[in-house]
């Protein structure tokens, strides 16, 4: 059993659907990686969902002017976790921000203060969550092969950027993470 708490970032229909303007091409690869991590984090996993705010404020107004298809209510189908995860998500945190480091997620970390991140997209919501959690003092591990970006190049660049934050943020793989001794 690996130490810490797993946050599965935004494994939602809006990012899985190839017809979506926000499709993540390697979503299925990230999903397979997440599925391989879940048994080691039974009872210690949080799924997050990105949602549009009811009334965008500030720069978010221009953002949703650029992406009007996404300005939908929280119960719209595009925000649902994909079928493979909907039944596995015992704990879900919703946020209208890219970063999912919320007080609710922070409260889920155990005494070791370790946050393990997987999901989509590496170059947006995973990155935003990792940096905010690191700033708050959490040890952050980003599981590279359980994440996917808007494209392969952006995924790799985001991983490289996060690796610059060592020892606060560390990029790892599924195999290396699961090989670590548990708590």
Describe the structure.
34% of the residues lie in helices and 20% in strands. With 183 residues, it is α/β, with parallel strands linked by helices. Strands 3-2-1-4-5-6 form a 6-stranded parallel β-sheet. The chain is globular, with a radius of gyration of 15 Å. The chain starts with a strand and ends with a helix. The model has no long low-confidence stretch (mean pLDDT 95).
SSE layout:
Layout: E1 5-9, H1 13-16, H2 27-37, E2 45-50, H3 59-66, H4 83-86, E3 92-95, H5 103-106, E4 114-120, H6 122-135, E5 139-148, H7 152-163, E6 169-172, H8 174-179
Parallel strand pairs: 1-2, 1-4, 2-3, 4-5, 5-6
Helix pairs in contact: 6-7
Give a short overview.
The chain is α/β, with parallel strands linked by helices and 183 residues long. It has eight helices and six strands. A six-stranded parallel β-sheet has the order 3-2-1-4-5-6.
- Number of helix segments? 8
Task: Report how far apart the termini are.
Answer: 7 Å
- The strand order across the widest sheet is 3-2-1-4-5-6
Coarse shape = globular
Task: Considering the chains and any ligands shown, give keywords for the structure.
alpha/beta, 6-stranded parallel sheet
